[in-house]
Amino acid sequence: MESKVGTNRTAVAEFILLGLVKTENLQSLVFVLFLLAYLVTVGGNLCILAAILGDTKLHTPMYFFLGNLSVVDIGCITVTVPPMLGRLLFHKKAISHDACLSQLFFFHLLAGLDCFLLTAMAYDRFLAICRPLTYSTRMSQTVQRILVAVSWACSFTNALTHTIALATLHFCGPKEVNHFYCDLPQLFQLSCSSTQLNELLLFAMGFMMVGAPVVLIVTSYIHVAAAVLRMRSAEGRKKAFSTCGSHLTVVCLFYGTGIFNYMRLGSEEASDKDKGVGIFNTVINPMLNPLIYSLRNPDVQGALWRILVGRWSLT
C-alpha cells in the first residue's frame, strides 16, 4: 500500500456518499420518511423549549439542561439529515472534502455536547435526591453555566482534534463512502496513509467523551437508587423514579449506539450495520428524546397544555 501512494498521489477533492438505498423508488420513500422524522424532531424539541421558557415552574436546573439538550438535538439532526435530503432531491451524491470535514466536526461537537449534558443531568438528579439540603447552592445558576461551558469546551476540543487529525490523512481513491454522512470509521477505510494515530486518538478521546461520563452517571444513579429505596413516601419514590427513568432511557439509547459505533472500527462487512447505528445516532435518538421526556413527565405535559390553552383562549 505504501508504495502505491508515493509522491505522485492524486488527492481526492470530493467523496461520494452512497446513502442508505440504491433504487430510485426506495430513495423516494427514504426522502419522505426522513423529512417527516426531521420535522417531528425539530417540532418536538421546539415544544420542549417552549414549555421550559414559557412556564416559570420549569425554570429549574434539570430543565435548564433539558433545554440545552433539545437545542443540541435539533443541531445534531440538522447537520446530517437536511444535506442527505438535498442529495436525494437533486440526485447528487458528491460532497467536497472540506464540506465532509465540516460535517464531521459539527456532528462530533454536538454529539459530544450530548454526552456531557446527560452527565450534568445525572449529577443534578444526584444532588436533588441525595443532597437536597445543599442542592440550591451546589446547583446554582453559576454552577449550571459552568457545567455547560465546560461541556462546550470539551466537545469542541474533541471535535477539533479528530478533524485536524483526519485532515492530515491522504485520500487517493477509492472515494465512495458507504454511509449517508461523513464519519470517522468510514473515512478511515478510504485513507491511503496509516490511520493508526487516528485510531489511537479515537480510543483515547472516546474514554474522555464516553468512559468518564458513563462512570459518573452510573455512580450518580447508584447513590440515587439507594436514596430512593430509603424513602418512606410511595409518592416520592414514584416521582423520583419517573424523573430518573426518562433520563436513564435516553442515556441507554445514546451511549448504547455510540459505544457500538465508535468503540469498534467498522469493517466493510459491517458497513450496513453502521448505517443502522448512524440512523439511531442522528435521527431516532433526537426524535425520541422529546417524546420520552414529555410522555413520562407531567410537569412538561402541564406546561405544554397551559401554553396551548393560553394561545387558544387568546384567539
UniProtKB/TrEMBL annotation:
Gene3D superfamilies: Rhodopsin 7-helix transmembrane proteins. One of its GO terms (cellular component) is plasma membrane. GO terms for molecular function: G protein-coupled receptor activity; olfactory receptor activity. Keywords: Cell membrane, G-protein coupled receptor, Glycoprotein, Membrane, Olfaction, Receptor, Sensory transduction, Transducer, Transmembrane, Transmembrane helix. It is found in: Cell membrane. Belongs to the G-protein coupled receptor 1 family. Pfam families: 7tm_4 (PF13853). Residues 44-293 form the G-protein coupled receptors family 1 profile domain. Its main location: membrane. It comes from the Eukaryota. This is Olfactory receptor.
